[in-house]
């Protein structure tokens, strides 16, 4: 049974190990693997090619995705989804592994309601904002990239007695900011999920400064859109010379960590096994309390991810 693998939406470290495992595992099973290049746009444009061991040699340690990705606007239109299906049909492909976020899963679900096609989603996004799973491919690597950056920023912040505001990615989700703040001992953390108490934070900071604190690290999730407000407040209200660092897309790059490589392998094997078992329902591979499982696509895309309250409780916030 020919199967294909595709990346969709923002890339994340771990995609390449998943792509490699997909090819190696399908050959092991005596089946034929295909690549869909360029994500959903490539599906529409027929960029579907057989994959060989040679294609995946030496890619395990690389960030990004050798088969590339895209955010497709055309896929919202029925005619393009039909074209995409017909492209798959030319190769007799009836099952697809999709590395992406819930937007990509929603798009694929729409297509599989219209045409006889099964897919299994592997949650892949540094944002960790997908309902039903504790983690996503790419999150661990992104957290380590952020940790590395924060350790370096702390060096210069403490040497110069400055405040640093560091903006991290995550769209509307504060997960990257929360975990980074906890593990880097940041003094301030702002996330979309929690209101920031300016008054209490000011009192705490002023007291700490009176007791000798000479630098401040503030982590701000991009979804709050408050990076420059906090910088202004630290400079003018708290009275500390302040600098802003927006980490940006470096958070999406880098060699996948051991955890992300293992996660990629485990998820891909499960996704392939499910598609080869010829059941008709579309699923998403999830991890809950350290255990792997499969969930129905409806449950994933119709619910909103929320940060574990216990994690928020661990945040050493100043309010
Ligand atoms: O979803 C991953 C992500 O990196 C978000 O954290 C960020 O807001 C967005 O993608 C950036 O998108 P783009 O790469 O299109 O600028």
From TrEMBL:
This is 6-phosphofructokinase. It is found in: Cytoplasm. Keywords: Allosteric enzyme, ATP-binding, Cytoplasm, Glycolysis, Kinase, Magnesium, Metal-binding, Nucleotide-binding, Transferase. It is an enzyme of class 2 (transferase). Belongs to the phosphofructokinase type A (PFKA) family. Pathway: Carbohydrate degradation; glycolysis; D-glyceraldehyde 3-phosphate and glycerone phosphate from D-glucose: step 3/4. Its cofactor is Mg(2+). Residues 3-275 form the Phosphofructokinase domain. InterPro entries: ATP_PFK (IPR022953), ATP_PFK_prok-type (IPR012003), Phosphofructokinase_CS (IPR015912), Phosphofructokinase_dom (IPR000023), PKF_sf (IPR035966). Its EC number is 2.7.1.11. It catalyses: beta-D-fructose 6-phosphate + ATP = beta-D-fructose 1,6-bisphosphate + ADP + H(+). Coiled coil: none annotated. The keyword Cytoplasm applies. Pfam families: PFK (PF00365). The gene is pfkA.
